[in-house]
Design brief:
By secondary structure, this protein is α+β, with helices and mostly antiparallel strands. Helices cover about 40% and strands about 15% of the residues.
Length: about 45
């Protein structure tokens, strides 16, 4: 678990690939809402 800004983040998979420049920018800028939105877009539809 990683502590960031006072709340816990659990990394449960490697779905988001930070190898893409746009994705890497989200991580570099600590853009948690952007990372969350990307994860939602990439999540499989059930």
């Amino acid at each position: 678990m990683t502590q960031t800004n006072g709340f816990a983040i659990n990394i449960i998979g490697e779905r988001i690939n930070p190898g893409f420049k746009s994705t890497r920018a989200l991580f570099d800028n600590e853009d948690l809402p952007g990372i969350q939105a990307l994860a939602v877009r990439q999540a499989p539809v059930r």
